[in-house]
UniProtKB/TrEMBL annotation:
UniProt-recorded name of the protein: Chemotaxis protein CheW
Record's keyword terms, sorted: Cytoplasm
Pfam families reported in the protein's UniProt record: CheW (PF01584)
Main location: cytoplasm
Matching SMART domains: CheW
């Protein structure tokens, strides 16, 4: 019996967890998501980059918390009741890392065909578009699909 996940992978369809930041919607591959947590107090690390808010102890694992707004150069906001931490596991060439990313709010889970994703147009000489793997239309809105490896390669 073929599972639904295998069938989706054969068709080139992936599921993405989407979230809101600065009134825009972004998505990450749902297979990278370990859990979604509400905002909690963290331990601040001295001399860390501004976007590294600190660390939390997640069942014995020390997890760095990255403010994705600051990582993307968006204005900082005060954390509120909708602020969440999406804990993701990112596979790098030689190892994997568990990282928490703060976002304004979680939105939806979408099944998106990889062939529907469009390339990000290059509009400047800076590499800010490196964080976005592609753009996809979902209904009336556009969702930016995040390349977590590039975004979290600090």
């Amino acid at each position: 019996m073929i599972s639904e996940l295998n069938l989706q992978q054969q068709k080139g369809v992936k599921q993405f967890l989407t979230f809101i930041m600065a009134d825009e919607e972004y998505g990450v591959d749902i297979l990278t998501v370990q859990e979604i947590r509400s905002w909690e107090e963290i331990t601040v690390l001295p001399n860390a980059p501004e976007f590294v808010k600190g660390v939390i102890n997640l069942r014995g694992t020390i997890v760095p918390i990255i403010d994705l707004r600051l990582r993307f150069g968006l204005p900082s906001i005060e954390y509120g009741p909708l602020t969440v931490v999406i804990v993701v596991k990112i596979e790098f060439e030689h190892d994997s890392k568990i990282i928490g990313i703060t976002v304004d709010a979680v939105s939806e889970v979408y099944s998106i065909s990889e062939q529907d994703a469009k390339a990000v147009p290059s509009i400047s000489e800076t590499n800010n578009d490196d964080y976005v793997a592609g753009l996809v239309n979902v209904g009336e809105k556009m969702v930016a699909l995040i390349d977590l490896q590039k975004t979290m390669n600090i």
